[in-house]
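Researcher: Batch entry, complex prediction.
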Amino acid sequence: MRKVSFPYMGTSYIPFKNLLEAFGNEVVVPPKPTEETISLGTKFAPEFACYPFKIVLGTYVQCLEAGANTLVSSGGVGPCRAGLYTTLQEKILKDLGYEFEMITLEPPGRHFKDLLQSIKKLINAPLTLKDYISITRFVWKQLVLLDKVERLSHKIRPLEIKKGEATRVYKKCVELIASAEKYRDLPEIERECELLYDGIQKRDSDPIKIGIVGEIYVLLEPSSNLEIEEMLGELGVYVERSMFLSQYTIYNAVLDLFHMAGERNVKKTAAPYFKEMCGGHGRESVGNAILFAKRGFDGVIQLSPFTCIPEIVAKSILPKVCKEHGIGFLTISLDEQTGKEGLRTRLEAFVDLLMAKRNQTKSFTVKPQIAKEMA
Amino acid sequence: MAHYLGVDVGSVSTNLVLIDEDENVIESIYIRTQGNPIRAVQEGMKILASRNKGAWEVKGVGATGSGRNLAGVIVGADVIKNEITAHAVASLREVPDVQTVLEIGGQDSKIIILRDGVVTDFAMNTVCAAGTGSFLDQQANRLNIPIEEFGNYALRSKNPVRIAGRCAVFAESDMVHKQQLGHRPEDIIRGLCEALVRNYLNNIAKGKEIRPRIVFQGGVAANAGMKAAFEDALGQEIYIPKHYNVMGALGAALLAKDAKVSNTSFKGFGISDINFTADSFECSGCPNHCEVVNIKMEGKVIARWGDRCNKWKVVDSTVA
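Model: Structure tokens for the complex:
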């Protein structure tokens, strides 16, 4: 029997586990990345590989040790090193003596046949068309719901009166969603989550708003970005991320199949500054920064793994973009540091700067669009 | 008369500044942290206590620097602020028309850009130690020249030697090689200052618009060679404020004054006699194995940090 495991990224393990189980596989749920994961990753990875590579490699070692015999990962195209990752990781792990099969899910638009063959390997139960529909419906709804409760936590954390409550509620919501067994459980859980968030005592204020752009892994996995969203929320900042897993899946799995460009709006917005795709999410970082500015955000933070080329390209363009659009900009390069103080210092100073700017321009009352979104 | 205290606990130095109601600096103290911030803060407080003739009524305390939370707990701070904001506040107070602050301390360096008295941009070094005070210190040691003399040596140079500045390892090996070729120490030192300035401008100050007035502060501003190298590279006059080496503490004191707290949490100058200790343990609650630190006052835990999940968070949440 296949014992399948996969990289850990945010809460995506919940729907992915359900999907693979419904397909008749045993699933080894990857552990949340910890210092142990990072130690394993840095031990076996090439020194110059980026942080996401090391975390994912460390996770694989932990999953294989826990008995997995199949690893599933997404592939990639374009100049970002991520496209090479699964191959390189497979080689490293096999050199270490692990026996397993690596299944790479390539983008459907360019490698449709490969993708079908890969998926076929993962289907180990007799399923009817009706089964497929109900599985997809359940897993998709779960994914969408997970993104929803996360967005709510970003929205409510800066307003909470008792520190840490939004984080506590968010964790509870994730548990509730993970406990669902079928589609019909989910509407009730959704209502319960909304009630939990409603129960948090909130102050009435117009928080500083910061948009986060950057490379997907460090954006989506909090343990790789020192829980920056939580840290900002506790400084009283409303945080919005440019990327969520459900939307990413639509762009890269569904739209790609029909050769439609996802995030067309983002790419078009970036065009005056950034015409070519440079791999990874470099162009999207620039486009999203502009979109945040147009929606009245106070600042943009770019997260990039140390040495990530696409983000280095974006980093050289973003200061100009943000200056022209009149919003603050801070770039943060992430690697295996686990000390949070350096980051906290920069974030505090950045928030101070944005506050001072707001007080100076006194224009913060006229941000109708955001006010509407927050309501 | 009301007084305000600022404490800046950095990796290399711990500074204390006392200002009066009119923001005059009454006392300023500079102590080497030497890896023991608790002792450094206590020693500073002891010096202050010995100079206190009972005339000071401390109405507010600010803490800053990388050890600000620790300092805040020990001294009883009303305001705990990051060092970037503190440095900017102090700079504005000393030089109201400042537009650029170059700050080089023991283990970090930063640039702060201000326009119309408001911080509009900043950067702090993240990548390397080449270009900070500790590196200069180490090189002075290696050449057997007292760090206080280092700057004057640089000024005597007529033919600066080119030293690689991008990385501390490159810089040091370059220096050794040039030294073995027979270059004079002053030319090497001047070359090193130029390399550090080049590295600073290309790395931290990259893409920032450096407009006058330019203020140079932090411990390294004492080095005349560095000031000269900055002036050469920027073609502009560099201003060094009077209290250049305690600007963080001064900023913290000013922030404490601005905060207008009615009841200060200041623990008094007597804290140098209280027994503060710190110990740590490894939490085994999850695979993160966080190193949790206990800060104890007379054996009682008053603060705790280091845990990622906040499960050990203590007690008196009003302090940290």
